[in-house]
Hints:
Blueprint: E1 2-3, E2 13-18, E3 21-27, E4 32-36, H1 40-51
Antiparallel strand pairs: 1-2, 2-3, 3-4
Amino acid sequence: MFVRWKGDHPPRHVHVYKDGRLVVKFDLEARVPIKGSATRRIMNLIVELEREGLL
């Protein structure tokens, strides 16, 4: 599950959860994890969601 709140504190970021546990908190501006680590699959999904204007 990808969670992003409109109006959340900077930097622009997304929280990624699996089975209710945080996998990664990812900085969308610097393209780096803030907390946790992003798998290749997560990175591909982030790129796809950004292309579609959903992130």
